[in-house]
Amino acid sequence: MAKGKRKRGAVVERAAEAVGNVLGTIAGTVESLQAQHSHPVEEAREVLAAGQEMLAAATSNAGTRATAIINKVKAVARKTKKAGTKARRKTAPAVARVTRIERKAVKRAKKAVKRGRKTVRRPRRA
Fold first, then answer.
1. Half-sphere exposure of 16 (CA within 13 A, CB side)
2. For 58-86, how does the pLDDT look when each residue is reduced to its tens digit (9 = 90+)?
3. pTM for this predicted structure
4. ∠ CA 12-17-19 to the nearest 5 degrees?
5. Cβ atoms of 43 and 37 closer than 8 Å
6. CA separation for the pair 16, 10 (Å, rounded)
């Protein structure tokens, strides 16, 4: 039985050594991480600040582009409006002339129709 107890003791010792090695490795890893990143909160703040700066720059750039596009659209609208006004001014005399001619023609046609009707209504003289 003494032999059996020794074997059990050796197994327990080996298991304890394995657990100790693993715990030692974990402790070493934690210590190295602490040495590399002594202030994780400060590092996180720095990374967050850098991200916010990048976001602010991108937003500013997008805002500048949008403003430029809006200004271009406004300029095109102004030019179009001016061109339309000029075209109206130029065509207005021509339209007035055509309207006058058309009114005169209609007036003459009405007169002719009235005269024709009157002529038809009058009795013929023998």
1. 6
2. 888 888 888 888 889 889 888 988 888 88
3. 0.39
4. 95
5. yes
6. 10
